[in-house]
Inverse folding.
């Protein structure tokens, strides 16, 4: 018997699910309707772009290092970051990229025995109801004893609190997909939940990574939560022309759709995005966690 197609034509990710949780209308505009972005997310635009470019370059440097490119070659590349005239006054003594790279080399966040296998920039997808749930990992590290660590590099100026990180969709989705679809990476058997750990490593706070252990119970709970989000999306797709707008107007300050929603025209400032992490409330460090979370270069 022919089956009817799902109500939404989507591949889901931690980023899109986070949008849905933060504001269903943002999810609808961005992923369901494919609405072009009418406004910048944060001001000033030049500083925002530069932040994103440096974060992207840092991810690329680490990727190349994990693939075996000698560190001294990459150090020269990290030191060659051009200083743009508009930002000279605000420039600290050492450019962020060079500092992040120095921290990375000094702290060796992904140090492991030679027999460990490294999978940088791995992409996996698992079924979630009628949809695919995709995860793009900065690094998956498989230790010889069967343990598996997921590493994610973060370049925000403020270190988020553990409680804030714990409820991020990235912390839910990454281990979930690895357990559900890890055999595609390891060529045989996916790791058991108890063998998986999620590690956030902060380039500005290299000695203070945040680690989340995983378990069968957490995995089952994550699965229920993710399926409930999909069910709610499908319900809205059937029932609502305009999906609900967030009640938290603070979110709108850094949202590219604020003019469409009549929630203001002026972007929030980059520094305020970074403040949000320190406060660890529902405000997001949007640039680092939304736009840099799944960098593809
Ligand atoms: S401006 Fe506010 S209400 Fe509109 S999509 Fe963005 S976050 Fe949601």
């Amino acid at each position: 018997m022919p089956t009817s197609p799902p109500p939404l034509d989507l591949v889901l990710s931690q980023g899109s699910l986070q949008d849905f949780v933060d504001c269903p209308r943002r999810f609808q505009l961005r992923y369901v309707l494919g609405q072009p972005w009418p406004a910048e997310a944060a001001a000033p635009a030049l500083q925002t772009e530069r932040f994103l470019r440096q974060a992207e370059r840092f991810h690329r440097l680490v990727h190349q290092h994990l693939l075996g490119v000698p560190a001294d070659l990459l150090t020269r590349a990290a030191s060659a970051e051009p200083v743009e005239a508009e930002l000279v006054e605000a420039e600290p003594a050492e450019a962020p990229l060079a500092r992040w790279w120095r921290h990375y080399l000094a702290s060796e966040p992904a140090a492991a025995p030679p027999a460990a296998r490294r999978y940088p920039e791995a992409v996996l997808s698992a079924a979630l109801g009628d949809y695919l749930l995709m995860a793009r990992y900065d690094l998956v590290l498989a230790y010889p004893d069967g343990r598996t660590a997921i590493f994610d590099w973060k370049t925000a100026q403020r270190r988020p609190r553990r409680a804030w990180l714990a409820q991020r969709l990235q912390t839910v989705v990454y281990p979930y997909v690895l357990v559900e679809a890890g055999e595609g990476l390891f060529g045989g058997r996916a790791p058991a939940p108890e063998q998986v750990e999620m590690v956030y490593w902060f380039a500005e706070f290299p000695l203070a990574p945040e680690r989340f252990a995983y378990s069968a119970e957490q995995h089952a709970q994550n699965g229920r939560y993710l399926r409930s989000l999909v069910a709610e999306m499908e319900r809205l797709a059937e029932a609502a022309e305009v999906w609900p707008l967030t009640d938290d107007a603070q979110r709108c300050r850094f949202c590219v759709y604020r003019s469409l929603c009549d929630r203001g025209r002026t972007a929030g400032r980059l520094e305020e995005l970074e403040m949000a992490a320190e406060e660890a409330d529902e405000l997001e460090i949007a640039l680092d966690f939304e736009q840099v979370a799944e960098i593809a270069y």
Notes: The pocket of iron/sulfur cluster is lined by residues 23, 25-26, 29, 245-246, 251-252, 255, 257-258, 261, 263 (CB under 6 Å). The chain has one domain: 11-291. DSSP finds twelve helices and ten strands in the chain.
